[in-house]
Design a protein that fits this description.
six-stranded parallel β-sheet; alpha/beta; three-stranded antiparallel β-sheet; 220 residues
Amino acid sequence: MSPVPDCGENSYRGSDRMAGKRAVITGGDSGIGRAVAIAYAREGADVLIAYLNEDEDVAEVARLVEDAGRKCVLVRGDLAEPAHCRAVIDRAAAEFGGIDVLVSNAAFQMSHSDLDEISDEEWDYTFRLNVGAYFYLVKAALPHMGPGSSVIGSSSVNSDMPSPALAPYAATKAAIANFSASLATTVGGEGHSGEQRRTGSDLDSADSGHHARGKGRQFR
């Protein structure tokens, strides 16, 4: 990508605000997920990064996490598959002994000028990854999360101001916002917090991503 986005590699300075915390970040190889992984590590957290297949990109993030003196675990695979979501959480629990923060950030996005261009398969895959993975990850993670832990869903300005060219993606971001609001109520009483983080349309379109299943992009 040109210009190369600033994910904090040379600018972010931590202050131990997450010392001893354990985080799971999906789509942590690039873009927003990469920036979150770097920031969390420099704030003192150990990090598990779930990613699709961008081995070189994620290796660089792992190096940055480890340079901050923190542990980094990498899990490769497609989060559109419920079993893989559960495997990611199982790995985090095994490696860290628990989870303090879950950031569901990985997403799939394609741009179309006409509704007829959107295939059934693309529609289904977009929801399976963007919304389904969020649900399966949260459901699997909650038994490993204690009081004060957090679940963060990556929503977008497209959730309530949708771009006509991003219909499937925008619809999933609205679902993420709604599900996050439900989580804040359903798990908040157990000492957890559920919240959404919204990105602007410039980040939605410019955030780097990689091909998923030969078409579109798995955005972060």
